[in-house]
Write a structure and sequence with these properties.
There is one protein chain. The chain is mainly α. The chain has two domains: 1-50, no CATH class; 57-106, no CATH class. It is built from four helices and two strands. The protein has helices at 20-29, 59-63, 73-82, 91-105; strands at 5-8, 11-14. The protein has a two-stranded antiparallel ribbon with strand order 1-2. Strand 1 (5-8) and strand 2 (11-14) form a beta hairpin. The longest helix is centred in the last third of the chain and has 15 residues, at 91-105. It is globular. This is Transposase (putative) gypsy type domain-containing protein. Pfam families: Transposase_28. Residues 61-105 form the Transposase (putative) gypsy type domain.
Length: 106
């Protein structure tokens, strides 16, 4: 995903360069229910522009980090214990937590 910067009040925030086809593929492929109201960002929006009540999740989290929704109770507990929000997880961090969960369950 190529990014360019736009000046916002807090500083330089990268503009989201989404591919609507990939967005639809993710929402269909990962079976997002309609009540989640997943939204494709408007042109020029940044990750900081999520409407109230929404969060920004990046495609790499799903495609490279093996993240799935709804998340497991284990994942929610790990995030709570360490004080992280899901939007702060990198794909590699997600892989490590998922591997840890798989090991604990096995």
């Amino acid at each position: 995903m190529a990014e360019e910067g736009v000046q916002v009040e807090e500083g330089l925030v990268p503009v989201l360069k989404w591919d609507q086809g990939l967005f639809e593929q993710i929402t269909r492929g990962f079976r997002f229910p309609p009540e989640w109201d997943a939204r494709y960002p408007r042109q020029g929006q940044t990750a900081a522009d999520a409407p109230p009540g929404y969060i920004t999740l990046f495609e790499e989290l799903f495609l490279q980090g093996n993240f799935r929704l709804p998340t497991t109770d284990f994942m929610a507990s790990i995030l709570h214990v360490y004080g992280f929000h899901i939007s702060q997880m990198s794909p590699m961090g997600m892989v490590r937590v998922r591997h840890f969960e798989f090991l604990c369950r096995s």
